[in-house]
Amino acid sequence: MKKKIIKVIAIDLDGTLLDSRQRISAYTKKILDECRNRDIKLVIATGRNQHSARELVRGIGPVSFVSNNGSNIVDEEGKVLREREIFRSTTREIIAHSREIGKLYFFLVSPDTLLMPPTRKSLCRPLIRHLFSRQGLMEYLDNRKLVPRIRTRDIEGYIQKNPFKVQKINFIGEAFRIEELEKRIEAFNLAITRGHEWSIDINPSGVNKGEALQFLTGHWGISQDSFLAFGDGHNDLDMLRFAGTGVVMDNSSLGQLKDNADLVAPSNNEDGVARIIEKMVLRET
Question: Rounded to whole angstroms, how far apart are CA atoms 23 and 228?
Fold first, then answer.
């Protein structure tokens, strides 16, 4: 079998590159630096928006970003290669459906900002349970620090009057309410990804991390087989399927992800990404 030459490494952030305390180890930074020294392109592929992703990897040098699950693609020089948005009319209809269902909290995500209602109705019971877990608390503190946000009661009015790019909508609520919303918006043919049983990400039609990597194959003229991808969550499935080599983290609880991956890496708390890269890429190039 012909050996694959890795030219691009795409890496999810939460639960993959970041450990459970939202950090990147010195060892992992060293391995990523060595990749750049060998002209291997690094892509951070995340459901986060580009602003928070950039802040989290500030210490690892120039990288490209596939953010908001693929709605925003930016190269290592900061040039926007592609942006996709949900139409404002569609956004208003989705919000109207959520209000009819009731007790669904949501926020709209642009490349650099979150737009959300006031906080007093934001905490449903599943989210409260998540926030009291270690991972949930770290995510909450991290997001408050990293993500600029705008709060307003008139979400529809704000997006009508301001140039806010709706690249993703996140809904949080009881599982049965989330399921009802999914049924109601099925006809919009949007890309929907479950984060938890109590949350979903909504992106423009056809957008996902795998589709974004496919875009980059054409832009860079690099074959699909040359992509190595790492992930741990629902929104990583298409990316792992697309990449010539897809690697799932051992800390992932998703059997479907492990069934579709080529390799299983040690957990995010064991520098799993760096260990696989060192073994599979750096020692063999």
Answer: 22
Judge whether 8-83+207-282 and 88-203 match in fold.
no
Query: Minimal CA–CA distance to 211: which of 247, 175, 169, 239?
Result: 239
Distance CA 243, CA 230 (A): 9
Specify the range with the lowest mean pLDDT, choosing from 26-40, 119-133, 178-192, 203-217. 119-133
Residue type, 71: S
Q: How far apart, in whole angstroms, are the C-alpha atoms of residue 223 and residue 41? A: 13
**Cβ density class 90-116: b for 16+ within 10 Å, e for less:** bbeebbebbeebeebbbbbbbbebbbb
Residues 6+ apart with CB under 8 A from 260: 237, 240, 241, 246, 248
For the chain, which residues make up each domain, given as ranges? 8-83+207-282, 88-203
Distance CA(58)–CA(184), nearest Å, equals 40
Q: Which CATH class is domain 8-83+207-282?
A: alpha beta
Residue 58 identity: R
- What is the dotted CATH code of the domain comprising 88-203? 3.30.1240.10
Distances (CA, A) of 244 to 167, 183, 260: 27, 34, 12
- Among 101, 43, 67, which Cα is nearest to 219's? 43
Please state the separation of Cα 267 from the chain's center in Å.
18
pTM: 0.92
Q: Which residues pair with 159 in a beta bridge?
A: none
The pLDDT tens digits of the residues spanning 185-244 come to: 999 999 999 877 888 999 999 999 999 999 999 999 999 999 999 999 999 999 999 999
